[in-house]
Amino acid sequence: MQQNLNSHTRMVLDEERLEAAKQSLDQGAVTPEMTQWRDDIVKLLNDALATEIVCVLRYKRHYFTATGLESPAIAEEFLVHANEEQAHADKIAKRIVQLGGEPDLNPDTLTQRSHADYSPDSDLRSMIRANLIAERVAIEAYSQMIELIGDKDPSSRRLIEHILEQEQEHADELSDWMKHAT
Ligand SMILES: [Fe+2]
Ligand SMILES: [Fe+2]
Question: Which of 24, 58, 84, 112 shows the greatest Cβ crowding within 10 Å of its Cβ?
């Protein structure tokens, strides 16, 4: 039986876009196709960067103040999370620069731009709860970003998908600890 190939959209590269990519060399890795979305993506990434930095600060605060409490193992895990959030922040900042943007690390506006709160709690259960809330907010924000970016910037999307996986692991761990913390 003969297949009617014309009824399908063929998988071929767009030659015009390949030609356009040869122009505007000052844009570095940013191709013309991406240019129209670049500012929006940089803004999304900068808000995510602010969120990660606030998460680093919250986890560090909890790490140092929970050390003497009943669960030093959980305090140690706060530090592990702090370091992972820092790694997320660094990767996001690097991607912003690749897109020709500027990573916004202005401390004056960090908490306003962050999706998650700082929460300087002093008992272990409140700490775990605040971190779980922040992780859930991060998961929601990253999921929305993945949807918004779609195929407009595959590199940023892949980066966010990778970070999202780790936030989901963080949230899983925290909800386990919630069940055990008194
Ligand atoms: Fe993170
Ligand atoms: Fe996290």
Answer: 58
User: Ligand 2 centroid to 73 CA: how many Å?
Assistant: 17
Q: For the purposes of burial, counting CB atoms within 10 Å of the CB of 174, is it exposed (0-12), middle (13-18) or buried (19 or more)?
A: buried
Question: pLDDT tens digits, residue range 104-121?
Answer: 999 999 999 999 999 998
**Ligand number, closest to the Cα atom of 51:** 1
Q: Which ligand is nearest to the CA of 85?
A: 1
Burial (CB < 10 A; 0-12, 13-18, 19+), residue 45, is: buried
Contact 55, 119 (CB under 8 A): no
Dist. CA 32 → ligand 2 center (Å): 33
Can you give the pTM of this predicted structure?
Answer: 0.87
Please state the CATH superfamily assignment of the domain spanning residues 36-180 in this structure: Ferritin, core subunit, four-helix bundle (1.20.1260.10)
